[in-house]
Structures are given as structure tokens and as C-alpha cells.
Amino acid sequence: AGSPDNLLAISTQTGAAGVVEKVQLFSLSAILLTGVGILANRQRHGGRARRPAIALLIDSFALGLLLATTLFVVANFEALSPAFRPVQRATLLVIGLAPVVFLIGLLDARLAQSAVGELMVELRANLAPADLRDALARALRDPSVTLAYWLPAFQRYVDLDGRQVEVPDRDGRATTLIDRDGVHVAALLHDGALDDERDLLDGVTAAAGIALENARLQAELQARLEELRGSRARVIAEGQKERQRLERNLHDGAQQRLIALSLELSLLEQRLTTDPEARTRLDQARHEIALSLEELRDVARGIHPAVLSGHGLEVALESIVAQAPLPVRLLIELDGRLQEPLEVAAYYVVSESLANIGKHAQATAATVEVARKRGQIVVEVVDNGIGGADTESGSGLRGLADRVEALGGRLLVWTPTGSGTRVRAEIPCA
Ligand SMILES: Nc1ncnc2c1ncn2[C@@H]1O[C@H](COP(=O)(O)OP(=O)(O)O)[C@@H](O)[C@H]1O
Ligand SMILES: [Mg+2]
User: Fold this and answer.
1) Nearest ligand to the C-alpha atom of residue 351
2) Residue nearest to atom 11 of ligand 1 (CA)
3) Contact between 64 and 97 (Cβ < 8 Å)
4) What separation in Å is there between the alpha carbon of 295 and the centre of ligand 2?
5) Per-range mean pLDDT, top range of 25-29, 31-35, 330-334, 390-394
6) What is the reported pLDDT for 115?
7) How far is the C-alpha of 338 from the C-alpha of 401, rounded, in Å?
8) Could you read off the pLDDT of 268-318 as tens digits, one per residue?
9) Mutation choice for ligand 1 from 351, 390, 404, CB with most ligand atoms inside 8 A
10) Is the confidence at residue 379, as pLDDT, over 90?
11) pLDDT for position 363
């Protein structure tokens, strides 16, 4: 036989060569099909596709592979020959479209690049830490982006407000760790589809470097503040418990014993009918005991106002106002009792302020107001004295501020010289 005009001619003529070619065609088809399978699998596990251009590129490539495979198979079987032409046309069409799809992908990559450029510009303009996340989300074109800053001192991730963030997160987003100079700074939680664009991710995270470090510092500050607030509240609560315990001990111990002693003396006195001098001395002793009891009660009240726990803020305030050395107007607008820490704080604001007025103000009158206003308890003590109170010099006002701030509130003091003093505590309440 002469030399054949083309390769296909061999396969139709010689038996052995035909078998070889069939084997070749089959293995090629198998390889192509495997490629299609891999692509399909990736598509299924890649999460929601966020980058349409990339998805299009991959899909059209898969379609091209699939059609090429079909073409090989069709070419192999005599029975399928009528399908050969249409499949061939479709394959050529898809392959012909490839440059267009590729161009779209290229354009998309360009867009992504310009997004990084925009990010650089934003970063150079001193982007505020609060806006960093949004800028990254725009550059990555993934609105779901979350930034979690690493705090080595706390061994956990937090957001900008210092609140803990779970990494990796429960929604199953992908995590990219961001280091700077070998030190871990933050974790970026983002859509899994972005894993296909390592370059973009690396570019964006590298560009954000210093801004990320700044934001991390802010997050750390917030976390420390939060911790401080918590520990201050705990210290004050602990102190309060200790005071309560002391008061209880005084009440149940020394006070009860003095009362018993006083009764004992009364009984003795009744028996002493003959010696009038002894009777007077017993009477004196009883009087001394009564005075000691009174003093002890004052001490106990200073340590912890038992009347507060027993009868509530209103009664407790009435009792200190009654003991004040000047006329005090008391206005209370509360419906029912408050939480104990709130009552205790309000009580101390009033008692310390009234004590200050007695000691320093040279006032002739004062007003105490306690009211619930817009989710806050407002305690205000006003006098008409000389003013000039100093929140830093003594421990009284400073201590009040600590108490009030530990409950998330604030203490304000207006004290113009010569026109009285106004102490106002605002404490949030549920
Ligand atoms: N109502 C007031 N009128 C005038 N001066 C005041 C008043 N309250 C406080 N002060 C001034 O502010 C200072 C600080 O008060 P405080 O912190 O309670 O400490 P302390 O009462 O132990 O001196 C007082 O020493 C006093 O000079
Ligand atoms: Mg004082």
C-alpha cells in the first residue's frame, strides 16, 4: 500500500493500527473526563462563587474539555457518526469563544488590581481603624470580610472594640493569617472563593500592614479598658461584701453582747435595794453602755448601712437626711427598689455629699434628688454654700467617682466658688 494521505485513513484501513489508535483515544478521553471531574468537584466545594469572571473562566474551560471528550468518543464509534458534525461545531464554537472569556477574566483581574490601588490611596490618607475593614472588603470585593486582631497578652482574637472573635469562625469562612515582621497581627475571615486569588489576598494584606497594626493597638487598648472596668467593678463588689460581713459581725457580736450586759445590769440593780451608791454607779455603767452601743451603731452604719439592705434606699436616705446638721429637702422618684449595687452607690453619693456639706460648705440648705430618668438613676445633691469642692484633693469624692464609674455611670461636680456645689451621679440601670 502507498503512503496514506492522512492519519484517519490509517485507522480505517489497518486493523492493528486501528486498535492502537482506539486505545489512545480512550485514554485521552479518560484524562479529559478526569479534568472535568476535578473542576466540577472544586466548584462544588468552593463555597458561593463571589468572583463571576473566574467562575466563567473555569466553567467555559470545563465545557470545552467536556465537548472535546465527546468529540473523541463520537469519532470512535461508527454508530454515533451522525452526531459528529454538530458536536464538532459546538466544540469549535466554545474554543472560538475562549479568547473572549479570557479577556473578561483579564479585565476582572485588572479591576481587582485597581481595587488594590484604591486601597493604597485610602491607606495613605490615614484611614481610621474603624474604616479599615470596609476598605479591605471593597478591595477584595467580599462584603463578608471580618478582621480579627490578635492579642498575644490575652491569647485571643478580638474586634476593634476589644470583644472576642472566634477564629476560625463557625460560618466556615476561610481564614488568612496576617503577619508583619514575623509577628502575628491579625486574621482575615473571608469567603472561601477568595482562596483562588492568593495574589490579591497577599497584595491587600501587605498593603494594609501599618494600618492593621494601628488598628490592632486600638483593639488591644479597648480590650484592656474592658478588663479594667470589669476588675474595678469586681474590687468594689468584693469590698462591699466584706463591709457587709463586718457589719453583720459587729451587729451579731459586740452589739448583742452590750445589749445583754445592759440587761444584766438592770437585773442586778433591782436586787441592790440596800446600797444607794452602788445603784447610782450601776446606772452610770448602764448609761455608758448605751452610749457605746450608739457609737458602735454609727460605726456599723458607716461600714455598711444595714437599713439599706433591710428597708431600701428611700428609708435609708430619710434616715441620713434626718441626721444632717442642716435642713435638707429630699425628693425621691423611684418605682420600687433598685438592684443592690445601685442602691449602695446612690446611698454613698448622698451620705458623702451631705457629710461634705456639713464639713466644708458653710451652707444653710441643701436638696437631695433621686430619680429614674431615661434608663438612668440620677442622684443629685445641691447646696448653697461656698463652692470650690475639689475632686482630686480628698478621697471622698474620688471614691464616689470610682463607685459610680464601676457601675458604668459617671459623677459630675459643678462647684463655682461662692455659689454652692452640685454633685450629680448618673448610673445606667436596666
Ligand atoms: N459641698 C462642698 N462645698 C465646698 N467644698 C467642698 C464640698 N465638698 C467637698 N469640698 C472640698 O473638696 C475637698 C474634697 O472633698 P472630699 O473628696 O470629700 O474629701 P474630704 O471630705 O475627705 O476632705 C474637701 O476637702 C473640700 O475642701
Ligand atoms: Mg468628704
Assistant:
1) 2
2) 389
3) no
4) 20
5) 330-334
6) 77
7) 19
8) 888 888 888 888 899 999 999 999 999 998 888 888 888 898 899 999 999
9) 390
10) yes
11) 95
How many residues make up the chain in this entry? 430
Give the Å distances, CA to CA, from 321 to 43, 83, 294, 363: 76, 103, 18, 15
C-beta 357 within 6 A of ligand 1:
yes
Contacts 24+ apart (CB under 8 A), 388-394: 388/415, 388/417, 388/418, 388/421, 389/356, 389/360, 389/413, 389/415, 389/421, 389/423
CA distance 86 to 419: 100
421 lines ligand 1 (CB under 6 A): yes
What is the per-residue pLDDT across 315-373, written as a single tens digit (0 to 9) for each? 999 999 998 999 999 999 998 899 989 999 999 999 999 999 999 999 999 999 999 99
Cα 166 to averaged position of ligand 2 atoms, centre (Å): 47
The mean pLDDT of 102-130, rounded to a whole number, is 80
168 DSSP 8-state letter: S
Q: How far is the CA of 390 from the centre of ligand 1 (A)?
A: 6
- State in Å: Cα 397 to ligand 2 middle: 6
SS3 sequence of 299-336: HHHHHCCHHHHHHCHHHHHHHHHHHCCCCEEEEEECCC
